[in-house]
Specification:
- About 65% of the residues lie in helices and about 10% in strands.
- The chain is built from 35 helices and 15 strands.
- The chain binds adenosine-5'-diphosphate (ADP) and magnesium ion.
- The site of adenosine-5'-diphosphate has 14 residues, from helix 6.
- It holds the Pfam family Arm.
- Its main location: cytoplasm.
Length: about 950
């Protein structure tokens, strides 16, 4: 228990309005896998909305009355109980004797019939929700032995799950709302007896020391076993082991369990990041050259204490425990010192004696510290225990005055941040190495290719030289051959000419000798022979000439062919030279390309090195920024605490103002008993108006349209909170018009129609109930089919809180004269009657109020002359219910029903109504009201109705 003891609460709603501030932004990033299962705790509408809004750090105190048992009866058969509960007012009357009693107000009053579930939802669930959001929390039971502390807190409900107590239900909720991949849940279970801490999960460990962190003041028990929970069965198993060990330890110590304190500690550790995806994407962006998107890994470490205290009765009274006086002092030391601390805190004392006992040291954070704390005090009905009951109630009253400073237990997860950064640097370094290697091999390959090209080029050059030499040689050879052939041809020509001359000469000779033949016959014969011989010789010569000629033409053909070949070869040579040129050009181009590529690779390498350096610098800068932001966050947190205090003051004022100004019947539908803040009538009017300005400023900054926009969010949790904010705003007349203008009403109706979620149904109906306080809005809600939607929800759920909101909304619509017919046609009255099945007093109070409103409008309509015929209310069968239940319920409900009956009865001109009244036994009821009603105006109204109607008068005579 911190000695800085009177701080105002922190505002959870503020934390969830998305702003640029660190922790708030983080909170909105978070994903909650099972958030859809969450619901706001039971309790009145106003209470739940206020809780969310003002999020008071005040210790919440509920009182629970144990049913009478066999022990009470023989003694108390003739006595009346010493307590009387007024759960609808959250009040408890403590009767000292027949003529004096005191009344006390609590946050919640549970009658003997309250279910374990309702107690859990109202007392412990808000604390468990805080734990899941990263705050510490405590749920503690206080009371006399035998009043039901262990029943409320520690019951396992193995055979009957409806009997399960707070410990089991809290663990179940925590397991369902955490993700075992990112979060961890671990428990310790301890017993404190005679100022010694014993481990209930390992009973051999006794006298475990309590250790305090000198810096943070955080209390821990390193010697106790801390068991990580796998699932619900496992946690049940642990609770069972603890229970068995508690029983065994107490038997061994020869004491009752009522003298020891049992403490369950649940450690919840949650990581607020989606890990793999983020790492992968930031790496990918790093490789693309972007700055990696940087979101801090946050870890929340919260702790839930569930405490089943020892019996609060005086030890000398319960007596025979066989302890020595010294021991007896010790037994009560922890409880006595808890009482002293609570007193000191409640009275704002200068010194809080926290260090006096082990219990107060363990509960240091729960009272006057940073935890959200709920206390349930248990009492028995018996008048025999008047003084114990009275002291328990006083303990609760004092505890209600303590206000804790709720603090978020979250910190940057430096370990995982470091791991992530190291991983990124390693990845970048190895990537750089890989790139370098790639460049080296590429360079090598280029060089190899270049060499190969050079070799093939010299080869080609060599081949070219050899070939051109060959060609040269062949050319010379061919030229020589041509020359010799030409010479031969020339000699052949000379020879031919010579032979031709010879032939000519021989022919002339032949001519001459022929002439001589004639002259000389002898000569003739010789001549003939000579001629013959010459002729032969000529033919031979001719033939020879022919041969020579043909040989000559062959040679000529050969020569042309050779010349042709020579030409071809020369052409080939030219082509080859051209190819060599091209190859040389290509090679120089390749050389240039390789050079430029190597240069660019080198530039890339330099760039990468620079990048690595700049990344390292950025890392350092980020780390510095982190430190700076951490400091800034702290200052901001201080600021927030201050503004929260101011706002909290303001809420109190507003509440006070409301309770004094509002039409009680309508506003109570939205308030529904939640006004926990005590009024401070001494504050001035100006303060109230400046504070109202402050609140409207806050909403102006966030923007109503943004809040309305959030109604369409994908995240259910966000949706629920947005509806709650709108519901709160709608409670102020001045905001209603704006909400409708911004499309809030349409969005709420769409949400009510489309959502399957009970929490949404409940808070949306609450918001509509607030909007339906205004006549203009009533028209709009009706014309947009709101009544039909509300009737539909009423038929689908059995959740009393939802039904209360729906009934409240319809009850407000019942107060509009113009909409009567439409409301009936849309099933509004039928829906009201249908909700009677819930049996819940708060729901029935709204139903009764709605009927009173409706009946009032009807009778007004008849008086003004535009309504006649049978009452719509009677037509839908409400009369029967009203008559049969007018004496069944508590005073406020009764008053509504009586009022409705009186209005219906006043409708004298409509004979139908009078007949219905008579046939349903309504006249008898009117007579009863006129005589017995607790309110005079009601008695007068009933008498007036009776006397003004002859049918009734005739019937009374019969009665
Ligand atoms: P304490 O722990 O305060 O000494 P217990 O939880 O042991 O009291 O309750 C005493 C007895 O009364 C038990 O038998 C318990 O089952 C019964 N009891 C207590 N509260 C209730 C309740 N709300 N409904 C039914 N039985 C109850
Ligand atoms: Mg007990």
């Amino acid at each position: 228990m911190a000695s800085t003891n009177y701080h105002r609460a922190s505002l959870r709603s503020e934390r969830q309005i998305p702003t640029a501030r660190g922790s708030v932004a983080n909170a909105s990033v978070r994903t909650k896998p099972a958030s859809s299962k969450r619901s706001v705790a039971a309790g009145s509408l106003r209470a739940s909305i206020d809780d969310e809004n003002a999020d008071s750090g005040r210790v919440r105190v509920a009182v629970r009355l144990r049913p009478k048992n066999a022990e009470d009866f023989p003694f108390d058969a003739d006595f009346t109980d010493c307590v009387e509960l007024q759960p609808e007012l959250n009040r408890l009357k403590l009767r000292k004797n027949n003529w004096s009693s005191e009344s006390y107000k609590f946050d919640e009053v549970f009658t003997e019939s309250a279910s374990q579930r309702r107690v859990y939802e109202a007392v412990a669930k808000p604390v468990v929700e805080s734990i899941l959001e990263g705050y510490n929390g405590t749920v503690m039971a206080y009371g006399q032995t035998g009043t039901g502390k262990t029943y409320t807190v520690g019951r396992l409900g193995k055979d009957d799950p409806s009997e399960r107590g707070i410990m089991v239900r809290a663990l179940e909720d925590i397991i369902a709302n955490t993700n075992s991949n990112f979060d961890s849940v671990a428990v310790s279970y301890l017993q404190l007896y005679l100022e010694s801490v014993q481990d209930l999960l390992a009973p051999e460990k006794t006298n475990i020391p309590i250790v305090e962190d000198p810096k943070t003041g955080e209390v821990s028990l390193p010697g106790a076993s801390l068991v990580e929970i796998r699932d619900l069965d496992h946690s049940l198993e642990l609770l069972q082991i603890g229970e068995a060990n508690r029983y065994a330890a107490n038997t061994k110590l020869n004491t009752e369990s009522s003298r020891s304190h049992a403490i369950l500690v649940v450690h919840v550790r949650r990581s607020l990041k989606k890990k793999e995806e983020n790492d992968a994407s930031s790496l990918a962006s790093a490789l693309n050259g972007d700055l990696p998107s940087f979101s801090m890994p946050i870890v929340q470490k919260s702790k839930l204490l569930v405490v089943d205290l020892a019996g609060s009765e005086r030890i000398d009274k319960s007596g025979s425990e066989g302890h020595m006086l010294e021991e007896a002092k010790f037994i009560n030391l922890s409880l006595t010192s808890l009482g002293k601390c609570i007193n000191a805190l409640a009275e704002n004392g200068p010194h809080i004696p926290t260090r006096d006992s082990k219990l107060t040291r363990l509960l240091r954070d729960s009272f006057g510290g940073t935890a959200r704390t709920s206390l349930i005090i248990t009492i028995g009905p018996s008048a025999r225990h008047y003084s114990e009951t009275a002291s328990t109630i006083m303990f609760g009253q004092r505890a209600m005055k303590i206000v804790n400073t709720i603090k978020l237990k979250e910190e940057v997860d430096y370990e995982s941040l470091c791991r992530r950064l190291e991983y990124q640097i390693d990845y970048l370094t190895s990537d750089m190495d890989r790139q370098q290697k790639l460049r080296d091999t590429e360079k090598e390959q280029m060089e190899k290719k270049l060499k190969a090209y050079e070799v093939s080029l010299t080869d080609a050059e060599k081949k070219l030289v050899v070939k051109s030499e060959d060609f040269e040689k062949e050319k010379i050879h061919l030229e020589l051959k041509i020359k010799s052939l030409l010479e031969e041809l020339n000699t052949q020509k000379g020879e031919n000419n010579h032979l031709f001359e010879e032939v000519v000469r021989l022919e002339t000779c032949l001519k001459q000798s022929k002439q001589h033949q004639l002259e000389n016959s002898t000569y003739q014969k010789i001549l003939a022979d000579t001629t013959q011989m010459y002729e032969k010789k000529i033919t031979e010569l001719l033939k020879h000439l022919e041969d020579k000629n043909s040989h000559y033409s062959t040679l000529e053909a050969q020569m042309t062919e050779m010349q042709q070949q020579l030409n071809d070869n020369q052409k080939l040579l030219q082509i080859k030279e051209k190819v060599i040129d091209e190859l040389q050009q290509e090679m120089s181009k390749l050389n240039k390309e390789a050079e430029s590529k190597i240069q660019s690779l080198e530039a890339q390498k330099n760039e990468l090195l620079l990048r690595k350096e700049s990344l390292n610098k950025e890392l350092k800068a980020l780390q510095e920024k982190l430190l700076y932001e951490e400091m800034q966050r702290r200052t901001l947190e201080d600021d927030i605490v201050k503004s929260k205090n101011a706002l909290n003051d303001h809420s109190t004022e507003l509440e006070y103002k409301r309770s004094h100004q509002m039409d009680s019947s309508i506003r109570s539908a939205s308030v529904l008993g939640g006004a926990l803040n005590t009024p401070k009538p001494n504050k001035s009017r100006e303060t109230i108006s400046t504070q109202r300005d402050t609140i409207s400023k806050i909403f102006e900054e966030v923007g109503l349209s943004n809040i309305v926009g959030l109604l369409k969010s994908e995240d259910l949790d966000v949706q629920i909170h947005a509806v709650k904010m709108i519901a709160n705003l709608a409670a102020e007349d001045m905001n209603q018009e704006k909400i409708v203008e911004e499309g809030g009403l349409d969005a709420l109706l769409t949400l009510l129609e489309s959502s399957e979620n009970t929490s949404i149904h409940r808070v949306t109906a609450g918001a509509l109930a607030n909007l339906a306080m205004n006549g203009l809005n009533q028209d709009l809600i009706m014309s947009k089919g709101g009544a039909r939607l509300l009737a539909h929800i009423a038929s689908r759920t059995d959740d009393p809180q939802t039904l209360r909101m729906v009934a409240g909304a319809i009850a407000n619509l019942c107060g509009n004269e113009k909409l009567r017919m439409m409301l009936k046609e849309d099933g509004g009255i039928k829906a009201l009657l249908g909700m009677v099945r819930s049996g819940n007093n708060d729901v029935i109070a709204q139903i009764a109020r709605g009927m009173a409103n409706f009946a009032k409008c009807e009778s007004r309509g008849i008086k003004q002359g535009y309504k006649r015929g049978r009452s719509l209310l009677i037509e839908d069968g409400a009369l029967n219910w009203m008559i049969s239940s007018s004496t069944t319920f508590s005073a406020p409900i009764r008053r509504h029903i009586e009022l409705a009956l009186c209005h219906l009865a006043q409708n004298v001109s409509a004979e139908d109504n009078a007949r219905d009244f008579v046939s349903n036994g309504g006249v008898k009821e009117l007579v009863r009201i006129s005589q017995e009603s607790s309110r005079e105006d009601m008695r007068n109204l009933a008498s007036k109705a009776l006397n003004s109607n002859p049918t009734f008068l005739a019937e009374t005579r019969g009665v």
